[in-house]
Every structure is written in structure tokens, then in C-alpha cells.
Amino acid sequence: MTTPPEAGPRGDLFDPDCPTRRLLDRIGTKWTSMAVKVLAEAEPHEVRFAELRRRMPGVSQKMLSTTLQGMTRDGLVARRVEPTVPPRVHYRLTALGLSLEGPLAAVRAWAEEHMTEIDRANERSDAAAADGPGDD
Fold this sequence. Notes:
single chain, mainly alpha, 5 helices, globular
């Protein structure tokens, strides 16, 4: 399989200098995943900042702003500002951002499906650590 010319060369996750690692750090956060989900559900419409924040319980204004700035810089989100007082800021996924929804939806579904198993494993690990030193 060849790489499309517009895509450029593939990254190598195992190369410590590969920018793929930084990209995974950015797209692998819960806030990015939630923002992509909210924006994908609104597609093809835009979502205002306040509405995004309302639909993402627990996110601070600063964290949402930082997340959206990074997503905009990465070309995942388009930002539109209405010149009103105060300004109204709208966001929507770009085609690239929309292409991320499928993979993130699969990860979200996996996490929701397996959370109970993960919790039980954590409890077993914590109980074993409390009983004494392990093999680590």
C-alpha cells in the first residue's frame, strides 16, 4: 500500500523523535475525544464555545480553550468568530477532524464496555499491593 502524496511519509511510533508521539498525546485525551464526539454529532452545523462546555461536564473554560486551540492548530477543527460584543465563537470539525471520530468512537466504546473489568483489576492490584511487595 502506498502513501497518498498529500499525506506525506508515515510516522514511526517507536522512533523517540517521531512527531506521531506528540500527536497521540494530543488526540488521546478525554477532552479531545469528547469535543470530537460533540462536534461530530452536530455535523454539519457549528457549535458555540458555551454549548461545547455545557455538553462536556467537568471541563474548565481554560482546558476547553486549550483543547480547541490545539485541535484548530492541528487542522481538526475550524473556528469562526462573529464580530459581536461579546464575540460569538463557533466550532466545527474539518474533514480531517471528522475522520478521527470513527477511531475515537471505537476507543470510547471499548472503554465504556470494559470499565467494570478495569475497575476490578485495579481493585485486585491495589489489594495485592496492600498485602506486601509484588514482583515489580
